[in-house]
Design brief:
Two copies of one chain form a homodimer. The first copy, chain A, is built from 16 helices and 25 strands. With 550 residues, chain A is of the alpha/beta class. In chain A, the strands form five sheets. Chain A has an eight-stranded parallel sheet. Chain A has an eight-stranded mixed sheet with strand order 16-15-18-17-20-19-21-22. The longest helix of chain A has 17 residues. The radius of gyration of chain A is 23 Å and the shape is globular.
């Protein structure tokens, strides 16, 4: 890492920590790794674990075999559902699965053998004033105490760019409360003086670049670029040229939102590394970005509490290691966590068993899911993009479908009804309790009847994903933990997701990821047009507008 | 810095901070810098300010014009003389000359227009048990409270390598007390498993590499390498090849001990940068190492208290800038500190006027400065090296001179007397109160009479440098602040040093830096043979030995 080159030699591990790299080392247990390359465990620079649908105990089972040994998570979704307890849930899980820190003085061995989960404290709950969430408003006073937790790093993606630029006291108070800690950014397409002002506020990273020039400008403004390849937002192809030896210590990888099918079939950070190398990035550079660069950024590679560091292979660094059969293709032979083979670890089961139902809204028979007729604003969806287009079309135009968002926390809201294009000529309905960032119930469909069935079916199981055809539920995945996560095994969830995909395709949806795309249709911080429980959101103008076109 | 390349464009500064780099910026005061390159102010990664003989107020007058805008200092010398108040002296000076931090919320402008002096808390006072200092023993309990100061960064060079390796509780207690803060190293020629163990203890930098292979091994062990070019220890030629684009974020520059003549005539960090580029380092790489790399290492470039960062040219970074007429030769046109031209600053005068005399030892007429005769161990001095050779020779051999070290704090010690080779056939005596690290009186000479005159002359003025010939003082520079520093202007001191050099040459000394070399003859942590007030020190065996050869 320090000289961005592979070095041939021996490697000694004791008490979970690398203790030597000098030649001729001997050990109680020796592993012959001739022909293999060993790199530091991969660090996901920004991830909403909720998007994996997996609780932390299950998430680590899914990603450790892929080489991801550290995840910097933002519990923004569960925080929107539950408030501070949603953040505390991840802090508690992090402490539970990772174990304690070493004490140099007392010579306590490292007992950290799980995923190293680090928590950035969610900064924007709710994301905007244009939606209703369950967790209420988390201000600086509510967030600051969370910093006392050993696994809490800093302030998660500051999505309220206008609030930063205008000096909104509620936003600035949060930045000040986290003074001296990393402040993550979220600035899609922000450029020029606005970007400079945003950087001036102390924001030091952003994972929302989708164009090379945009990412280059962020680097020039001192904002580290996390290259994201999620299940919907895929920026690797566009941004891979950014990653060179010169930029390698200011660039990292992240998954942001990645579903368990993609994790299982494509991979996790290994998939991004493989893709970057295929796009021409030197392997040494890719592995540096995947580990040391992010560890340094978050203060985990340098002096760290407990004398334990991550992100490199050198004495004093925790032995989170990936053993590669082939560095160029990121072909993983073994993964070590705290010096133990991941495959030999006795990973714990989820600590939660029966979470409370957070879908408290009633779904009456007569619920109104009909939007205005005539010329209307239509949200244009493109496969694999969370940015939407703005269209104006007749409400009964070709390929246009109804879209409704219903406040789910029992606060008495009525559905907001609008229109979407790009899901295909679906005949039936697709519904979800995962709807960034307030996670109200969102449903797309042809007829209100099927849409109502979808909503009622979700309410019944405390949230999840559902596909309805002809008034009947034809596929469903319950997500009882906050309407966001399952307690099932990763393989069970993956099987269920494949059934949901098949069911979506059967009713005419041609999007490869209908649920993830649906989940972003209510997110009012990503341009251009979105639908929240309060109505149609013009993100560019940052205000609600009428569904009827003028 | 972030992509290690020069970018053409405009640069806006407000309230002392860079606020924009977008094109087409306008300002109240505009500076046409066409044709110039602008780089971040240089950061000295490790410096004992005492070796400049200048108090901080004077030091900044000397180095700001050379582009050095931040110095990470270790007040190890004054701490050995005065104890904790010696460290507090530099912390107070740092707060005084730099001004306050910005508060993002209250929109207080930056009023930091002096040198940014950061203090690493001295870890090894006294350096060893084999010498007598004035400041006593500073243990973890004495040092930890100093960390509360805003300008205190971490623990300064941990010279007690054997103590670290053996797990000496007094040493480990200090490492634990500074857990989570940078721990500077000092590991000359330490290699293999010993180096790995030293790194395991959390040491993350070292400025004591003198050979390329040694420095490369340190990098591999996760220890950042500060390339040093002091007035005596000169490592730039050997280590310049280490500095490449690949290593540039783990390599920095430092001066360690540099006298005011060299600062005035050769330069400060600009001299190191110039030399590195001449040795083949790419200018962009050299400027990165001289600023951002060190700032990142010490946590000054990332999230920093007060939202103010240093080490790069980007929004939110303090406008500590060097404007270059020519990047390749480091030809400095202007230096800006907190957005103001250094030449326009109203720099303060030293705050101390009449310091107490710390040379409390009596120098009686009959003081015994005569070592044993016959075959003796002789310290071999080489010009420009602080490492010494071990020789065995007759005490009256060619080029061999008497060397005495006298405890100066009034604790009643008698002189330790030995022999040295390499000063030349001097006829007279050269004396100093600067004698690392305990700063007892050290004198080299031909005849005890001249040596006694030198000691008495030093005691009279509270310490300093002196040259004696034929029983008369022929040149002297008083250093009344702790026997280490002058309150005079840099130019006055430089003139006095030139007189001392001329006087040394006149009595036959052919070393270009006799006082700096003398100052390291009593430092028992640098191999191989040294003389402290307690006797002759075999550094390799780490024990006192008889001057008589067996």
């Amino acid at each position: 890492m320090f000289s961005c080159a592979f070095v041939e030699g021996d490697l000694a591990i004791a008490d979970g920590v690398v203790v030597g790299t000098a030649p001729g080392l001997k050990g109680k247990r020796e592993i012959d790794a001739r022909g293999a390359h060993v790199v530091p465990g991969f660090i996901d620079a920004h991830v909403h674990l909720e998007s994996s649908l997996l609780v932390p105990e299950s998430f680590q089972r899914a990603v450790l075999p892929k080489g991801t040994t550290t995840a910097v998570c933002d519990p923004h979704e569960l925080a929107n559902v539950l408030g501070v307890p949603g953040i505390q849930f991840f802090l508690d899980a992090a402490a539970r699965i990772r174990g304690g820190l070493r004490d140099l003085r007392e010579r306590v061995p490292c007992d950290s053998h799980g995923l190293d989960l680090r928590v950035m404290v969610s900064s924007c709950v709710p994301a905007t004033e244009f939606e209703t969430n369950g967790g209420g408003t988390l201000d600086a006073a509510a967030l600051a105490p969370l910093l006392g937790h050993a696994q809490a790093l800093g302030l998660a993606e500051v999505m309220n760019v206008p609030g930063v630029l205008s000096g909104d006291p509620l936003v600035i108070d949060k930045l000040v409360a986290f003074d001296g800690r990393p402040l993550d950014g979220h600035a899609p397409l922000v450029t020029g003086r606005a970007l400079s002002a945003y950087a001036c506020a102390g924001i030091t990273s952003c994972h929302e670049s989708s164009e090379l020039g945009e990412a280059q400008e962020k680097l020039r403004n001192g904002i580290a670029v996390w290259i994201r390849e999620g299940s919907v937002a895929k920026d690797l192809d566009a941004l891979a040229p950014l990653l060179t030896l010169a930029t390698s210590t200011s660039v990292g990888f992240c998954t942001d939102d990645r579903n368990p099918l993609d994790i299982a079939h494509e991979g996790h950070l290994d998939f991004l590394i493989r893709g970057a190398i295929r796009k021409g990035v030197a392997p040494e550079v890719a592995y540096r970005a995947a580990s040391w660069s992010v560890a340094r950024h978050y203060g985990l590679a340098g002096p760290a509490r407990g004398g334990e560091r991550i992100g490199a292979i050198a004495p004093g660094f925790r032995a989170d290691l990936v053993v590669l059969d082939d560095a160029a293709t990121c072909a993983i032979r073994d993964v070590l966590v705290g010096g133990r083979f991941a495959g030999e670890l006795d990973l714990p089961s989820p600590a939660v068993s029966t979470p409370p139902n957070t879908v408290r809204a009633a779904i009456p028979e007569e619920v109104d899911l009909v939007g205005p007729a005539g010329m209307v604003h239509v949200i244009g969806v493109r496969a694999g993009r969370i940015l939407t287009d703005r269209q104006v079309a007749p409400s009964d135009g070709a390929g246009i479908r109804r879209l409704s968002v219903l406040e789910r926390y029992g606060k008495g809201g009525k559905p907001a009804n609008g229109y979407v294009h790009g899901f295909g000529e679906i005949d039936g309905a697709i519904g979800s309790s995962v709807g960034h960032d307030s996670h109200n119930l969102v449903v797309v469909g042809k007829e209100p009847r099927d849409m109502r069935v979808a909503l009622a079916s979700l309410a019944e199981v405390g949230g999840g994903f559902v596909v309805v055809q002809g008034g009947n539920v034809i596929a469903r995945l319950p997500l009882p933990l906050g309407g966001l996560m399952s307690l099932a095994e990763p393989a069970t969830i993956a099987r269920s997701l494949q059934e949901l995909r098949a069911a979506s395709a059967a009713i005419g949806c041609f999007l490869p990821e209908p649920f993830l795309q649906l989940a972003f249709l209510s997110l009012p911080v990503i341009p251009s047009l979105k639908l929240t429980d309060r109505g149609l959101m013009d993100v560019d103008a940052f205000r609600l507008i009428d569904v009827r076109a003028a």
